[in-house]
Amino acid sequence: VATTFHTFVQLHVQEVRLNLYWGGPEGVAKRRPANPTNPNDPAYDWTVYDRTVNYAAQSGEHVLFSIYGTPGWANGGKGMNVAPLNAIDLRNFALAAARRYSGIWPGADGRTLPAVKEWLAWNEPNNPLFLTPQYKKTAAGWSIQSAKDYARICNAVYTGVHTSMTVGERVACGGTAPRGNNQPSSTRPSISPLAFLSACKKDGLKTFDAWA
């Protein structure tokens, strides 16, 4: 990590986008927390991310965290690219993350952790690699399941982050892949960006500070 940030300094990097994994191998929440909005709940392990934001601050770079990856306890043991069964679990995690990186929270070593003010909900949700299923077949035909799931994901992350009441926070949604085939019966179905945005709006997407 130190070598990477040294290289960033040489390249005059100003902002670094990183995945903040909720679940998965690098996930913060290895098990269900008893107090999910408290960053110090014993179920949470922020070690990798604390170290990263400290290196970024020392190098003069801002961090944008993309909250991504569902832990198995939140979706019935399915993969990290499957949406949580209850969006409240994701909202609570987003709030805990925003509190920890609010600029006033003490880290494990006693130093105040640097602030992270920019957030993104998920990554390429119109791509089955990151969110699956993309489509679901119903009696009325194919529906865009990823848009239904992502509307809930975006709403959860936006609400969770802004509930921390940290001044200057911004939450982006989307982060979509640049193209999609809109073919539900293909071997790798995906959704084109504008079709995905329209479907998200139809399926309950509420608000965001930016759409990527």
Please tag this protein with its features.
single chain, 212 residues, alpha/beta, 5 helices
Can you describe this structure?
Helices cover 31% and strands 14% of the residues. It has 212 residues and is of the alpha/beta class. The strands form 2 sheets. The chain has a 5-stranded parallel sheet with strand order 1-2-3-6-7. The chain is globular. The model has no long low-confidence stretch (mean pLDDT 96).
User: Count the strands?
Assistant: 7
Classify the helix fraction into a percent range.
Answer: 25-40%
Number of helices: 5
Question: Compute the gyration radius: what is it?
Answer: 17 Å
Strand content: 5-15%
Average pLDDT, all residues: 96
Coarse structural class: alpha/beta
Largest sheet: 5 strands, parallel
Identify the strand order in the major beta sheet.
Answer: 1-2-3-6-7
Order of helices and strands: HEHEHEEEHEHE
Uncertain runs: none
Q: What does the secondary structure layout of this molecule look like, with pairings?
A:
Blueprint: H1 2-10, E1 15-21, H2 47-59, E2 62-68, H3 87-100, E3 118-121, E4 136-138, E5 141-143, H4 145-163, E6 170-173, H5 193-202, E7 210-211
Parallel strand pairs: 1-2, 2-3, 3-6, 6-7
Antiparallel strand pairs: 4-5
